């Protein structure tokens, strides 16, 4: 089955003076998918998007959108694209409906058709009760929804969402994520950038992890997790790891000698164990703790997350 590329970036280099913002960066977004760009602030996500949209020039490399090069004057191609920027970009002097109508008019000159599209966009983001409000009267979450409506009202085939849930409440965040998934079901290809790993894991078909302008790893969430050594993280609340005749370090050594254990640490309240993949890791750890007469409080076992993938690939946690 052949796959068409909505966006293809090859060996992209972007410099700001002596700073290398994109370092031979590669990207291939398939039509019809939600593609996640996961990386911390400063990793190059926004720079990559601005280069793709011809908002920034770049030093070397090539970019195509729907198989065509995108230049500042590729107006027909730009009509097929929507952008929801990280920073809210609306006019304070205009109402909700007027803002959406203005941005939609950049792509759709016909007023009758535009009126229908504006109404649909307002309904889509749940701002029916606020259509006559000006932005300053909206909460942060509602303002983010307005930002989205302005970017998608013209029904683009390709939509870039750049950190759309920054500083919003959980209810608005869920509404935004559900809206993005609905847009995708209705046919839009989505590029979603974030440093919130749980959002990327929740909605994206494939994920590219990047940092310092470089492509680090690409795959589904499960494929990315399969690339790392960590297979399970076990945590045990206990206050008596070092009692009953043995020191805490002796018990830790016993646990570390289990063949699947990568690391075991104890902070006086919680025992944290990083394990390789195995069918009986938790049972084997519990057998050791039982043999050492360790009292167990809250116990958890969880598979690796994309943050664990990032940590193993880069040596640092996913920073904000």
Automatic annotation (TrEMBL):
SMART domains in the cross-refs: AAA
EC number, UniProt record: 3.6.3.25
Entries under InterPro entries matching the protein: AAA+_ATPase (IPR003593), ABC_transporter-like_ATP-bd (IPR003439), DrrA1/2-like_C (IPR025302), P-loop_NTPase (IPR027417)
One protein family per Pfam: DrrA1-3_C
Species this protein is from: Bifidobacterium merycicum
Domain ABC transporter: 7-237
Highest taxon of the lineage: Bacteria
Keywords carried by this UniProt record: ATP-binding, Hydrolase, Nucleotide-binding, Transport
Designated name of the protein: ABC transporter ATP-binding protein
Example GO molecular function: ATP hydrolysis activity
Leading EC class: hydrolase
């Amino acid at each position: 089955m052949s796959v068409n590329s909505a966006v293809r970036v090859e060996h992209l280099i972007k410099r700001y003076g002596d700073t290398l913002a994109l370092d031979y960066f590669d990207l291939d977004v398939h039509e019809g998918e939600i593609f996640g760009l996961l990386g911390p602030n400063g990793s190059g996500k926004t720079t990559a998007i601005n280069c793709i949209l011809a908002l920034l020039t770049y030093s070397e490399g090539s970019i195509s959108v729907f198989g065509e090069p995108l230049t500042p004057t590729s107006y027909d191609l730009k009509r097929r694209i929507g952008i929801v920027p990280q920073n809210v970009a609306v006019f304070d002097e205009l109402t909700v409906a007027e803002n959406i109508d203005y941005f939609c008019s950049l792509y759709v000159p016909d007023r009758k058709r535009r009126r229908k599209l504006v109404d649909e966009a307002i309904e889509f983001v749940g701002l029916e009760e606020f259509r006559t409000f000006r932005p300053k009267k909206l909460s942060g979450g509602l303002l983010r929804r307005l930002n989205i409506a302005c970017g998608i009202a013209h029904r683009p085939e390709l939509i870039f969402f750049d950190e759309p849930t920054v500083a919003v409440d959980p209810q608005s965040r869920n509404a935004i994520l559900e809206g993005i998934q609905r847009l995708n079901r209705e046919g839009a290809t989505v590029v979603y950038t974030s440093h919130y790993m749980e959002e990327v894991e929740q909605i994206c078909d494939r994920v590219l992890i990047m940092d310092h302008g470089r492509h680090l790893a690409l795959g589904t969430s499960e494929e990315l997790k399969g690339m790392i050594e960590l297979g399970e993280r076990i945590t045990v609340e206990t206050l008596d790891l070092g009692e009953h005749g043995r020191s805490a370090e002796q018990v830790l050594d016993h646990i570390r000698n289990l063949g699947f254990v990568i690391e075991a640490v104890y902070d006086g309240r919680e025992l944290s164990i990083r394990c390789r993949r195995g069918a009986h890791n938790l049972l084997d750890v519990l057998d050791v703790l039982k043999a050492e007469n360790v009292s167990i409080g809250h116990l958890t076992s969880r598979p690796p997350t994309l943050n664990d993938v990032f940590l193993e690939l880069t040596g640092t946690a996913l920073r904000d």
